[in-house]
Amino acid sequence: MLERSSAPVGVFDSGVGGLSVLAEIQRLLPNEHLLYAGDCGHIPYGEKTPEFIRERCVAIAEFFRQRGAKALVMACNTATAAAAADLRERYPDWLIIGMEPAVKPAAMATRNGIVGVLATTGTLQSARFAALLDRFAADVTVLTQPGPGLVERIEQGDLSSPPLRALLAHYLQPLLAGGCDTLILGCTHYPFLKPLLSELLPPDVALVDTGAAVARHLQRLLTQAGLSNLQACGPTRYWTSGDVNDFRNVLQAFGMNSELVEPLGT
Prior knowledge:
CATH topology of the largest domain: Rossmann fold
CATH architecture of the largest domain: 3-Layer(aba) Sandwich
Number of helices: 12
Number of strands: 10
């Protein structure tokens, strides 16, 4: 069990968005050895078919299995909606943690009963999201807004340019016009926009995302399984199916270690 405890945790996303979740895991679980795969060569998942997304998720899961990962964190709402059930059926022996938009905490937090959701098209159209609304949002009004183009700009390390600001303001306008006082960031890329969102939103609009909750859930599952690593580990390693230099540049822009990046050959 000691050997398995020191095994790594695999974290992946369609691109760099999952780095927002990775950062929460690094803060909460500094002893865990983390591996991160950004499937940047196939971005964005939100505009792809569920079948294509499932194929990519299986390929990345196998990549981490080959490296002895003791757990898998699907740091992508769209991937979770399309493939989490399939991966759990395929790998019943594995700890698999997914993402979902924070509908429940947002429904509990709203003061006026109007919640906005900014997410990818794939997430908003998924059966998983519909089930979340049925389960937790029956007593609130939920306004949804897809955000095409935001992921691509964040992938380039753009967090504040005038074109990004204009695009984000365009997507926020109908949510604000509808009166939302709570905004769900339903894509792991979007927490990187919090500084810009703080400039574009009224101060009384609360932002809700799930990165910290996912880190806590991972901690609980590792503890319950006796797999928590209690000894210091090496630095996080990164892989990307996109351009390695571009990925390094984005890591640097986000203030993260950019030295250990390799091509994702899958």
